[in-house]
Every structure is written in structure tokens, then in C-alpha cells.
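Reopening this ticket.

The earlier resolution said the output was attached, but the attachment link was broken on my side. Pasting everything inline this time so it's all in one place.
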Amino acid sequence: MSCLRWLCRRHIPYAARRSFLQKVSDRMIHSERITQKQGRILQALIKSEDKRLMCSASRFMNLRSTPEDDGVQSEVREKVMSHLEAAWHETFREMTTYQARQLAHKGRDRHESSQADLTYGEVKFSSLARILVEDLRRHNIELKGTFYDLGSGTGRGVIAAALVGSFSRLCGVELLSDLHSAAVDVQKVYEHVVAPRLGLDVEQEVKFVQGNFLKADWSDANVIFINSTCFSKPLMEKIVKQAVNLSPGTCVVTLTHPMVSPYFDLLESKKYDMSWGEATAHIHVRTAKAMPENEKKAQYWSKRIPGRGNYGAIFDGYTSA
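Inline output:
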């Protein structure tokens, strides 16, 4: 029998293990190593006496580890993230990557936009979770307020952010109607099956809208994610131009292509594994630099040209499910 299995088999009462894990949970929440939502997930796992977590607790206690030990907290957090990733996969069990690509291909063929701009690619939960939970929090960017995924596909980024963050509102904007419809179906699975099973109240407003994100108002965002790997240079320039309307401190994460603008600071660039291969995640934050008056006037009038779409706040009304 291996040393690890021996340590796990040494009898320690479940009540003692739960007490130990409760102390770990309290310290992690107090030190903000996990969010309040992740803390609730951990509490549910402790209450249900999750086997993997109980085994880890037994090993920690036999090694005379304390709840303050970094190794203990890191492993417990990994257990929580693993549990959330399993929930994410369950949410998309009926919408596989292959099915999503077929829907994207069908929608792209009948659309007039650039084929490259509509290329479909999916983020991995583990990668996006690390970007949000580790990278953004390292730069003191809170996972609160309003989250947008521009070009949200079947909703994988939005659901991942809903699981790991404490956002009050989350919105995915997708141009292709077939992908949007799939995202709406996924939302129902998350809200009516997965979230209740996790023991979470659906206190967040999750919304998917169908339309061109350049014609939508996302100026109320706190965090924006854009899977921009296949976006053309002209499209990126339009995104940057509209993003100037964001409030100072707003975070924008893009993949592969960074935002080039005097109104944004690039905080960090880091490579992550995605469904199509490796991609660099660029983390930007809107600076406090004000836009010149002539640029403000130009944007003001451009928004009022007929046919430019709805510039009202998305959560106040827009083409949605």
C-alpha cells in the first residue's frame, strides 16, 4: 500500500475532518484566496462529505498540516475548481464542440461579415478560470459587477464566469442566430439543473443577446472577455474605438490581439491552452485619461446615424431570449 493511501486510510473522525476543512475555508475567504461563491461551493462539499476532500483532509491532519499552510489551501482550491469544471462540462453535455462548430459553419455561410471574423473557437474552462481567478485578481480586479463576452458563441465563457466569479450580471453577445439559440438552451440547463445541484441560488442575471456587438452598448461593463484570435485588424480597431467609452478601471481581456490605444494600459500577456491550440491572453484596463471633446462629439453623432443599431443598455432592452 502506498504512503498516500495509508495516510488516507488512517481513521480520523469525519467530524474532525469537517472542522479542519471549515477552518481552511474561513481562512481562505478571509484572505480572499477564493471568492464568496467558491466559499459557498466549498461549504457544500464539506457538508456533503465529498470523498476526495475528506481524503485530503485526512492526509493533511496526519501530516500535522495547519489550515494556514499554503499547500493545504492550494489543494483545497484546486478541489473546488475541479468541482466547478465538472459542473461546467455538465452544462454543455448536450452541446458538444463538434455540434457548436457545425452551427457556426452553417451560420457563417449565410452571413455577409468577414469569414475570418466569424471563425469559431472555444475557450477551455481551466484557462479562462485561471485568467479570471488568478490573473485578474493579481492585478486587484474584482470579479464583481457586470461581465460581457463579446462574440459569446454557445455561452461557454459566460457560464465559466458565472461559476467562478461573483458578477451580478453576465451577458453574452453573439451575431450568429444558431449559436445564440444554443446558448439560450444552455442557460436553461445552468439555471434549472446545474446551479441548484451546486447549491447555488441563481442570484446572478445571465443573459444572451443576438446581434452585432459593435451596435450594442456595453459601456456599463466591469470585465469584458473577447475571443479575438481570428478577428481582423479593422474589427479590432472598431472594438478599441468603442471601448474608449468604458469607465476607468474597466478590464478588457482579449485573445491573441492586444488593444492598441492610449486609453488602455496592458497589464499582462500570458499564453493559455484553448480548443484550437495556444493563445495569448492580454489583460487591459481602461485608464483615467479623458477622451478629447472633438472625439466625444464624433462618437455622439455616429451613434445617431440611422441603421447603426440599438445603443441602449443591453440590460434595459435589446434583442434577447
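Reporter confirms the inline version is readable. The chain has a mean pLDDT of 84. The chain has eleven helices and seven strands.
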